[in-house]
Amino acid sequence: MDVDVYSDKSDTSNNPDALVGELEDPAVVVKIGTTAAKIAFYNFEWRYVTLVMYNTMLHIGVESFLQVYNQSVALKLGKFVPRHRVHVPQFVIFGQDIVEVSENVNWLIQNRYDNTGMFIVICSSANYNKCSEIEIFQTFSRLYMPNVIFLKASEDGDEPMLLTYYPVLPGECRNNKPSLIELSNCDRDMCFKNMFPEKYGNLHKCSFIVSTLEQPPFMHLTSGVNGSLHPSGADGDIIKLISEILNATLVVTTPEIREWGHYKDNNWTGSLADVFNKRAHASSCSAPLTPQIHGNFQISFNYASIDIVWAAKLPALKPSFEKLLYPLKMQTRIALCAMFFGIIFMNAFMNTKLWADIRRTLNIGPTNISLFFYSWLVFFGMPLLRFPSKSTMRMIVISWIWFCYIIRTAYQAALVGSMKLTLYEDYLQSFNMVIKKKYPYGGLVSLSDYYSEDEEVFSNWAIINFNESYTILDELLNGTSDFVIALDKEFIVNHIMRYNGTKRLQIIPGKIVNSPAVLYFKKFAPLRTPVSRIISSIVEGGIFFFSFFFCMFVIMIVDMIYSNHLERGDFLFHHEVMKGAEPLKMSHVKSTFLILVIGWAVSILYFFIEVLSKKIVRKEPRILK
């Protein structure tokens, strides 16, 4: 057996009688210690260390307990807090009378030991009146210690007496009356097994108070009679199911400050404050788990996940003339430009002496036409006045006509859709671009904990309340704010869907965090264990996932149908989705008309230059030779 001894006692008396105290019959104390050891052996988890607390150097009950319980223990002599503490879920407490026992129990809980652990509390006085169970069980109830077995000498002083209590009984939601444990059928110590049953598995219609707030699409609150709130949605369904399994009366409350909650002025705000200050048993606020929250609260079994992302307004619109080039990807643009530059080069080459030599060698007739000019005529689909007589040249021209027809037809077909598109400048590809462009950013104060190690981001974080997020999202959808907000992605999608695809914003690629969706409890809350067990069964049985994934499935379908609700920086450039059957308007084709007007202006200018040149030629005097 591994034993660690911790002591703050400086008085080591050599008088065993003084250390034992007023034990009139030490034999019963030995029986109590042996019984406690058997209870611990068959009910405690051997992987954990058991804390044994007592106040006297020589204690018969402790000695008999250690002789039977041969697992790892930590002996704690007196009241002191060790420098290095580990989580201890099982305790054995010895005391000479009920006052000493009560003081030890109160001291443990005040020093943040686990009140929901398994406790074996022993009053080792043989005097029945010094171990009143009424007083100690009032202490157990006040400290929310459900898993307690109290051992004392029986009234006749011959045998140990075992008592426990049930915190919730039918018609009594805060019971503190002890109940006697009868030890029967002790063949092979069978009576010592399963002595710590679940005490909060049935609340007998007592209240189960949950603090939450409206968080579409997973939590919707509707008002009922007498001002009561009825939850719905995936999170609402799970707390209703938990309440039914616990046989409890569900009471839903909302915090005074409608937000998840954060630590402020030595207290908590929002929904977490209701739990921290014992106004609610649990919080279903879908708050992302941060180190500070995890250090001050306990969580249930996780049943889903939450994606926290950055949302910003759409970037500025691109000039409308760029729509003319949008149907052509960059490779196609480069190929077409190279082809036409090649035609210009060939046209210039045909005016060189080298081409004249090649033409004489190949017996090609003179070319008095402009290759560049006729190539453009063919490309724009205009008729040719002249056609090559040689079959070789004719095939080249026909191939060029066919190629231009394919390119022109495909381009015109794609251009109709391109004219309807709304093209934007470069999207924000990461949060680093937000910092680089010096956009204001922020969110709920609890989310800033994820950037606590980044001093620049943490110091410039703008704190907003949860209710302000609706206004900020509307400003982003209207394009009137440069603010970049951190929020739950599903909440953003649900808010945008109200506008039926008429307004959009962009989600910056990458998540701030993917946090588990859990219920939050106060540290060492008795209801945490049964609630976690229920959630685990629900998740493993697929009951919750039917509700949760149905909600997610609806969001995915709507997001596919109205995929223009959101814009993602890694999506838009090559997969722009149409908004629906929208007719062509002047705004869609104004760039085309602009090009047409420019062409007319160039043609008129060219016409006047040509007329002026002919007049100048006619006025020049002829020189007779």
From TrEMBL:
Assigned GO CC terms: plasma membrane
Q: Please list every transmembrane segment annotated in the UniProt record, as residue ranges.
A: 330-350, 362-385, 391-411, 543-562, 593-612
InterPro entries per UniProt: Insect_Ionotropic_Sensory_Rcpt
Decide whether keyword Cell membrane is in the record: yes
Q: Keywords in alphabetical order, please.
A: Cell membrane, Glycoprotein, Membrane, Receptor, Transmembrane, Transmembrane helix
Q: Does the keyword Cell membrane apply?
A: yes
Q: Which SUPFAM superfamilies match?
A: Periplasmic binding protein-like II (SSF53850)
Write down what this protein is called: Ionotropic receptor 7d1
Please give the organism: Loxostege sticticalis (Beet webworm moth)
Q: Where in the cell is it found?
A: Cell membrane
- Major subcellular site: membrane
PANTHER family cross-referenced by the UniProt entry:
IONOTROPIC RECEPTOR 20A-RELATED, IONOTROPIC RECEPTOR 40A-RELATED
- What is this entry's stated membrane topology? Multi-pass membrane protein
